[in-house]
Amino acid sequence: MRINSVLRFVRCFNLRLGWRISRPVLQGRLRRSALVCAALLMAAPALPAFAQKFPSRPITLVCPFAPGGSADIMARLIGQKLGDALGVPVVVENKPGAGSAVGSSFVAKAKPDGHTLILLTGAYTAQAALAKTPLFDPLRDISMVSMVTSYPFILSVTPDAPYRTLNDLIVRAKANPGKLN
After folding, report:
1. Fewest C-beta in 10 Å: which of 7, 35, 54, 152?
2. Using CA atoms, how far apart are residues 139 and 26, in angstroms rounded to an integer?
3. Whether the Cβ atoms of residue 81 and residue 57 lie closer than 8 Å to each other
4. Phi-psi category of residue 2: left, alpha or beta, with phi > 0 → left and psi -120 to 50 → alpha
């Protein structure tokens, strides 16, 4: 019954466009389409079986600074709460050196499976901007996941400095390239 209504629609459509499709050809196409749809529907329940449980092993949280500092304390607090939430251990690993470049490089070269994380600070952006020959691409090799905290950056000068505002400092730096330290 359905094939007849489909045939009527196709015949009407074919007459307008000048195409000719015979009943056996159309039945073959419909049969093939139905088989493909059935195969896809039968395979659909198996798709979740291909997904792996995350996390499948302990997570490493790299702190690119020495133990005992504010970044290390923050990493250990985050690691504890993250481990409780995910149900797997979170190991905080300190990799200090080169203004966070050693730890950042370690994470950038790690397998990108989500089991190696890094706690970045404002030093990351400065290190990425100042490196003459970066060990990795800071925008491509490390993906930002979440902001944990924020803190202000403060510029301070001696009382006898010739500038009082950030704009004064920028004007002076542009007027004297390479001389301001």
Report:
1. 152
2. 53
3. no
4. alpha
91, 99 Cβ separation under 8 angstroms: no
* Residue at token pair 């997904």: 51
Give residues with Cβ within 8 angstroms of 142, minimum separation 6. Answer: 104, 107, 108, 118, 120, 136
Enumerate residues 6+ apart whose C-beta is below 8 A from 78.
61, 119, 148
Taken in order 153, 157, 163, 169, the sign of the CA dihedral is negative
146: DSSP letter: -
pLDDT digits (tens, 9 = 90+) for 103-116: 989 999 999 888 99
Classify residue 36 by burial, with Cβ atoms within 10 Å: 0-12, 13-18, 19+. exposed
Residue 128, token pair as written in the block: 């990425």
Q: Is the pLDDT of residue 94 over 90?
A: yes
Percent of the chain whose predicted confidence (pLDDT) is above 70:
71
